[in-house]
Amino acid sequence: MRPITGLILGAALVLTACQGETKVEADEPVTSIVSTSSPNKSTYDQPNVIIMMADDLGWADLGFRGSDIQTPNIDRLASEGMHLERFYSMPICTPTRSALMTARDPMKLGTAYAGFQPWHNGGVSPEEHFMPESFKAAGYQTAIIGKWHLGRLTEPLVPKSRGFDHFVGHLNTQIDYFDYTVAHGYDLQENGVSIQREGIYATDMHGQEAVRYLKDIRNPDKPFFLYVPFLAPHSPMQAPKELERKYPDRKNLPFPRRTYAAMVDSMDQAVGAIIEALDHQGLRDNTLVLFFSDNGGMKPFGADNSPLRGGKLETFEGGVRVGAVMRWPAEIPPGTSTDAVISVLDLLPTLATAMKISVNNTKELDGEDRWDAITGIKTERAGDLYFASNTPIFNRYHVSILEQRWKLVQVIDHQSLETQVENYLFDIQIDPNETNNLAADHPEIVSRLAGKIRKWRAQHPINGVRVAIAPHPGWRAPLDYADAVIPMEEIQIDSGNSYVTGMAARVLQQRHGDKGRIKYD
Predict the structure, then answer these.
(1) Could you tell me the pTM of the whole model?
(2) Phi and psi angles of residue 30, each rounded to the nearest 5 degrees, phi first
């Protein structure tokens, strides 16, 4: 096995990750790999789906919103399709990804509060049904290129066990963009086998691999579902020098704004390569392309969420309301927009309706079918939306509820001898930027919404993932994360929860009250 080098996660990484200027240059830009051969018309009638997801992209950091960052390809998707002006993700990575894949509330999954780290053993339960499984059952071929972040230790938790036929990417987060390490372990694989791409900038590699899938790997006689969750512009803050030179007016102190701009620029080039390959194969009209961010951006890393309040890790609008565009020329008129509330939770039932396929869940979905709202029938989302974050500060929580007109944000800080709660109440319809806190004027509304939040949080498995920005002192990373996945035949099939049944479990649950669930789901 090859020797591994990398960066240590935790507080030290947050500081050192901003020093991306010391990294090596990237290879040729991703846009150079698109073939100029004649286009091929598809031989099937079902529409294709491509979901591309940015990681920590600020609300104001796209060209069509007035940013100085050059994003012509994402801007093109917006002009040729629809802006989803009130699209909501979760405030951090793993909750958004688990909501996207399952249409189930991350609070129930035990993934609401924090992202999985390399030193975590868990993942989204194998009992949950994933989006690509529904597409696969409907005859689609499925692929993921990029960041997984939903479990890595055992075979049932990785993409090839969750409905994806093809996987090139990373099981973890916070990957070094040039040497593909995290916490000293190497993390780049293709279908369970470690592959070498050192020196190629990660975002370029993601674009190249997505294009390779479209050109050379997929079966041209079958529809496809392609999911491309980019690393960019998540830390560590690293970018090719030539892209940083495009933004001389941006400074890297006190925030790495120049590096951040280059990272977004690179991601846009990868988006361009993917849509160019798609269009060149004659698949433009028959493919739904969705682009959005997994959460808001982080100002300390150079992002801009203005005029929204807050950012990543917070449940103000800047942390959860994200840029989103959808293009499907066969169904969606160009240059349109909708201000309908649509959540990442809603994407599985919504896309299933659009593609005319069945959702094969056996558990109750929390997402709603919002296709009517996208296609022009003005409808309100029926259910409330909830958001939570317990990172990066241990025992400090950001939680919120969006109930039509009203939004309550609570910052709950559990200290050694007391708990402090800050309440922020907004009339989100007239104050979308959350500038006027109405909590003191409407204590009865605060109390009612706080009760809803409390009931919602009681669904969290008591041992679900919580903040752990640094590993246990005894933890050590594997040399290679692909090699470290424990195969199916070497693990127990039972979940390990069999001992929390019967009268003892009921008594124990009563003692826990609203602190969370003992037995999963």
Answers:
(1) 0.91
(2) -65, -30
